[in-house]
Every structure is written in structure tokens, then in C-alpha cells.
UniProtKB/TrEMBL annotation:
<dbReference type="Pfam" id="PF07690">
    <property type="entry name" value="MFS_1"/>
</dbReference>
<feature type="transmembrane region" description="Helical">
    <location>
        <begin position="344"/>
        <end position="364"/>
    </location>
</feature>
<dbReference type="InterPro" id="IPR036259">
    <property type="entry name" value="MFS_trans_sf"/>
</dbReference>
<protein>
    <submittedName>
        <fullName>DHA2 family multidrug resistance protein-like MFS transporter</fullName>
    </submittedName>
</protein>
<feature type="transmembrane region" description="Helical">
    <location>
        <begin position="279"/>
        <end position="305"/>
    </location>
</feature>
<feature type="transmembrane region" description="Helical">
    <location>
        <begin position="439"/>
        <end position="462"/>
    </location>
</feature>
<dbReference type="InterPro" id="IPR011701">
    <property type="entry name" value="MFS"/>
</dbReference>
<feature type="transmembrane region" description="Helical">
    <location>
        <begin position="122"/>
        <end position="145"/>
    </location>
</feature>
<feature type="transmembrane region" description="Helical">
    <location>
        <begin position="215"/>
        <end position="235"/>
    </location>
</feature>
<feature type="transmembrane region" description="Helical">
    <location>
        <begin position="97"/>
        <end position="116"/>
    </location>
</feature>
<keyword id="KW-0472">Membrane</keyword>
<keyword id="KW-0812">Transmembrane</keyword>
<feature type="transmembrane region" description="Helical">
    <location>
        <begin position="71"/>
        <end position="90"/>
    </location>
</feature>
<keyword id="KW-0813">Transport</keyword>
<dbReference type="GO" id="GO:0016020">
    <property type="term" value="C:membrane"/>
</dbReference>
<feature type="transmembrane region" description="Helical">
    <location>
        <begin position="317"/>
        <end position="337"/>
    </location>
</feature>
<keyword id="KW-1133">Transmembrane helix</keyword>
Length: 470
């Protein structure tokens, strides 16, 4: 049960026991949260499709234009845990509202950018805003929903994240078919304003932690995770080995400094104390493996559909749609089931289905029909949709309420590290084989899904099975 701060007449703030928000306020609160999550998730994927158009109009090389995507991801991964820690100290509501404000303002700046450097700066700020939104997202859901239906709320959130990420290519293709690339960012502005106004009115004010924010720890965290993502990307592109060694050493140094600095802290920014809980550690590992598998598929399949099968960019977007649709159908169902059955069981089954779906994609005939592609994508969507909400619930329930911020930060960090690793591995597959890169990427994706399924089933042996029967 969450302790919620209620604003009383005369600006008096009273602490009261409340299990979630009243129904009407809860509905509006989840709308505000969902808009922010959808925008930040969509912008993780939407820029990939538009890179050629942006590079052409900004007179940038293909290699330089990749930083439009990398800058956003680097900013997000590097600042997620600091914002999660700030959420525990300042309150999740304040951090979420700040993230919505910065993301909306930065989206406007992206739409108005006149050259590549200005766009990259705007994308960095946009990534920081998205990080503030995502870093406290799950913790905010824990304050919004009553504990008895938290799985349902997490299922809705999983639906929003998955559909936004998977719909990115389709949305980008549709926008580019009618307008120029700045509209990819301009559409965020009215949505951001709506979410901001709603958030200020309906998001709950949660209890604030007594410990202080450590700025030096935050700097070490930014260096550690920023260098980690940069090193993974460079390794996948097989950069010169001396440069890679330097990056590995610098990354390790930042992590050592971070761990030493936060040693003994009651609520460390990188929550190593939570990783001592087997359920939390296995759930985080499951998330990394699953999002790596998804990223391996989503980055490699467009190349296969367009370069091998000769489909258009718009057709490619719609061929990916069955995955998103089935995630949308299964996520709420899995969320409700997670209120009754162990997440380890549900997640393990879902990831086994995901692995089977990816294997079926590998075994497609040389010239598959649209139906042959779509039913395989649908199987993958069923498996992925069955995993996410139960896994989110397992992570949040394995952390004490006062550490919801740290747990929420790890959820978002695990997702982004998985996505970044998957994308890097696709680049590695294309580097070692230009002809069969898509096949190797799908094979790796199926392997990650199997690893995630094993990690998920392992949770059945480390947590009491105290779940209500339907």
C-alpha cells in the first residue's frame, strides 16, 4: 500500500494511507502517463525510418546522420537512473512533469532545427526529457493503481510502450508520405501540452525520501552508461582495437567510481542492493534478453523485406503491424493474468512462443506471401505481449515501495540496454555477412528469447508462489 500525500485546503499537505487513486482521477492520470510514455517510446524508433530524408535535407552523410538516433538513446540511457533517484527524493510527480515539459520543448526545437548540429543538440535534450518520463513511469503507476489491480495497470502500460515502439516505422512512413521530416517531431508538441496540463492536475504526490541527491554519483552514472552504449556500438562496427580497448577501460573506470561512491548508501542510484534479490535480478535479465530479441528482429527485418523481398517502406511498416496488434491484444490479458499467476510462468511461456515465432521467420520460404509473413509476426507479437506486464509486476513487487524509483529506473534501463545491444548486434551481423546478415540476426534473436525464457522460468524456484487463484 502506497502512502500518498494529499493536498488540502490552505496549502496544507497531509500524509494518508491510500491504495491507488479513485477511479475517475485514475483514468485521467493514466491518460497523462500514457501520452508521455507513448511519445518517448515512439521517438526511440521513429527516427530510424526518417534518417535518409533527414540526411538529405540537412546535407549530412549517412554516418553522421546516425547520431540523430544515437544522441537520443545515449541521453536516455545515461540519465535514467539519476532521474529515478530524483523521483524518490523530489517525488515522482515533479520529475514526470519536468520530463514532459522538457520533451515537449525539445520536440519543438527538433522541428525547427536548421542543420545537423542544432538537431543533435535538440535530440540530446529530448532524450533527457524522455529519460525523466521513463525513469519514474512504473513507480508512478504503483501510486496510481490499487495493489490488487496493479497487473492490469502494468498491462496497459506495456501495451502503450510496445505498440508505440513497434508502430514507429509505420507512423514515420505515413508522415513522410504526406509531409517533411520536421513533422515527426512537431506532432509531439500538442500531445505534450495536453499531457503536461493533465499531469499537473491529476498525478498523485508521493512521499519523498529523506536522503539527499548525490550529484557526483549522477556524473559517474552518466559516464558509465553513456560509455557502455558507445562501446557496444563501436564493438559491433568492429572499430580499431586500440580505440575499443580505451573505451572498455574508461567504461570500467566509471563503473568502479560509481560503485565505490555509492557504497553503503541506503538507496544507491545504481540499485545493486535490489540486484541481491534473485527475483529482481532474474526479472531484469529477462527484460534485457527480451528487448534485445525484439530489437534484433525490428532492425533486421526491414532490410529483409525491402532489400531481399523488394517491398516498399510503407509495405514494410504494415508487415510489422501484426506484431504490434497482437502485443496490444495480449498485453492487457497478460496483465490481468499476472494478478493471479506467477510472472515467471507467464513470462517463460510468452518468451518460448516468441522464440518459436522468430524461428518460423528464419524458416520462411524464399518468396513468402504476405499472409506467410503476417502470421509469423503475429506469433512473435503474442509471445512478446504475454511477457511484458508480468515481468514489470515481478520487478516492482520484488522491490520495497520506498525503492520504487530505483526499480522503475532499472525497468527502463534494462529495456534500453536490450534495444541498444540488439541494434548493435544487427550491425555486427551485417558487418560479418552482407548477404545473410538478416538470417544471423534472427538466429541471435531466437537465442536471446530462449535465454529470457529460461531466466523467467527460473523465477519459479526463487520466490514463494503466493498468488491468488482465479
Amino acid at each position: 500500500m502506497e502512502k500518498i500525500l494529499k493536498q488540502q485546503p490552505g496549502n496544507h499537505i497531509e500524509i494518508s494511507e491510500q491504495d491507488g487513486l479513485p477511479l475517475e482521477q485514475r483514468r485521467w492520470a493514466i491518460v497523462a502517463v500514457s501520452i508521455g510514455v507513448a511519445m518517448s517510446s515512439l521517438d526511440t524508433a521513429i527516427a530510424n525510418t526518417a534518417l535518409p530524408a533527414m540526411a538529405s535535407q540537412l546535407q549530412a552523410t549517412a554516418a553522421d546522420s546516425v547520431w540523430i538516433v544515437n544522441a537520443y538513446q545515449l541521453a536516455m540511457v545515461a540519465t535514467l537512473l539519476p532521474f529515478a533517484a530524483l523521483g524518490e527524493i523530489l517525488g515522482y510527480r515533479r520529475v514526470s512533469i519536468f520530463g514532459l515539459f522538457l520533451f515537449t520543448l525539445a520536440s519543438l526545437a527538433c522541428a525547427c532545427a536548421w542543420n545537423l548540429p542544432t538537431l543533435l543538440v535538440a535530440r540530446l535534450f529530448q532524450g533527457v526529457g524522455a529519460s525523466a518520463i521513463m525513469g519514474v513511469n512504473t513507480a508512478m503507476l504503483r501510486a496510481i493503481y490499487p495493489a490488487r489491480i496493479l497487473g492490469r495497470g502494468l498491462g496497459t502500460n506495456a501495451l502503450v510502450v510496445a505498440v508505440a515502439f513497434t508502430a514507429g516505422p509505420s507512423v514515420a512512413s505515413l508522415i513522410l508520405s504526406a509531409w517533411s521530416w520536421p513533422w515527426l517531431f512537431a506532432i509531439n508538441v500538442p500531445l505534450g501540452v495536453i499531457a503536461l496540463l493533465l499531469a499537473r492536475k491529476v498525478l498523485p504526490v508521493t512521499r519523498q525520501a529523506a536522503h539527499k541527491f548525490d550529484a557526483l554519483t549522477a556524473i559517474y552514472n552518466v559516464g558509465a552508461f553513456g560509455m557502455l552504449i558507445l562501446t557496444i556500438g563501436d564493438a559491433a562496427h568492429l572499430v580499431e582495437w586500440r580505440r575499443l580497448v580505451i573505451e572498455v577501460v574508461v567504461t570500467a573506470a566509471f563503473f568502479i567510481l560509481l560503485l565505490r561512491r555509492q557504497g553503503g548508501h541506503q538507496a544507491p542510484m545504481l540499485p545493486v542492493d535490489l540486484f541481491r534479490r534473485p527475483l529482481f535480478a532474474l526479472s531484469s535479465l529477462t527484460a534485457v534478453c527480451t528487448f534485445a530479441a525484439q530489437s534484433l528482429a525490428f532492425v533486421s527485418l526491414p532490410f529483409y523485406f525491402q532489400m531481399v523481398l523488394g517491398r516498399s517502406a510503407v509495405e514494410t511498416g504494415f508487415l510489422i503491424t501484426p506484431w504490434a496488434v497482437l502485443v496490444g491484444i495480449m498485453a492487457p490479458i497478460a496483465g490481468r493474468l499476472s494478478d493471479h499467476y506467477p510472472p515467471g510462468l507467464l513470462g517463460g511461456i510468452g518468451l518460448a512462443v516468441l522464440s518459436g515465432g522468430m524461428v518460423s521467420l528464419i524458416l520462411m520460404p524464399e518468396n513468402p506471401s504476405t499472409f506467410a509473413i503476417c502470421w509469423r509476426m503475429a506469433v512473435c507479437g503474442i509471445g512478446f505481449g504475454f511477457f511484458q506486464a508480468p515481468n514489470l509486476k515481478a520487478i516492482m513487487h520484488s522491490a520495497p515501495p520506498e525503492r520504487s524509483g530505483g526499480a522503475s529506473g532499472i525497468i527502463a534501463t534494462s529495456r534500453l540496454i536490450g534495444q541498444a545491444s540488439g541494434a548493435a548486434l544487427v550491425a555486427f551481423c551485417f558487418t560479418i555477412s552482407s548477404n545473410n546478415g538478416e538470417l544471423y540476426a534472427l538466429m541471435l534473436g531466437a537465442g536471446f528469447a530462449v535465454a529470457g525464457s529460461i531466466a523467467s522460468f527460473s523465477r519459479l524456484f526463487v520466490t514463494p508462489l503466493s498468488f491468488r487463484k482465479p
